[in-house]
Amino acid sequence: MKIKRQKKAKKTISFYKYNFNFRQPFQILMDGTFCQAALKNKIQIKEQMPKYLMGEVQLCTTNCALKELETLGNELYGAKIILQKFQVRKCAHFKSPVPASECLLSMLEETNPHHYFVATQDRVVTAGLKKIPGVPLLYIILNTIVLDKPCQTSQDYVQAVQLGELVSPAQQQSICSLKEEQGISQRDRERRGKKRKRKQSNPNPLSCLKKKKKGVPTPPLKKTEEGEKTKRSRHRKRKDTTTVPVVTNT
Known about the structure:
Elements: H1 2-20, E1 26-30, H2 32-40, H3 45-53, E2 57-62, H4 63-72, H5 77-84, E3 87-89, H6 100-108, E4 116-119, H7 123-129, E5 137-141, E6 144-147, H8 152-162, H9 169-182, H10 184-193, H11 205-208
Parallel strand pairs: 1-2, 1-4, 2-3, 4-5
Antiparallel strand pairs: 5-6
């Protein structure tokens, strides 16, 4: 059973590696419910998690998850001690903590840009994770850590990328790296930073024309009185004075 479970986990991890650009060390974001379940089932998270995921891991949590365990009292004191050993990632609720479920979902945003694995037993969190593409889910069942298969949202996202409808995060990163190599991104930033100077252009020739003076009305033609004949102007043709000499036969 252990070999079969690791094969399934390997297949799922390769899915996230290829389609969502997950790399080692894997970042495992967890809450108090997962630590409480690990404590009850006597699971050593630091030892078993790297073996199960077959790679290096970074165990982390948020300040809101720690504050939630503090408010719940002594019943979850053991889970609080375990969770305090992990790295604390900054969240947007430092001054006013929110429930751990709300905090974890806010850390993932819309596309899980930091490539978090989420380890939780909270149903509210798991329901929210299934709406976000590219989020691997870890939970504890039957005294073992289980990596859930990709949700339908992740599968639909991958299918849309393959059909050319979307661009995957891996493709976006490769495009950005190619732009940096060619210096295109730097040129774009310089263009945005510089203000374009307007070229000195010649004035519009139509605007330079002199205004036309209002036309003076032409005087009306003189009407001839009745019975008076109109004089016609005659052009006399000048006679050609040059005479052609006549040749006589002698």
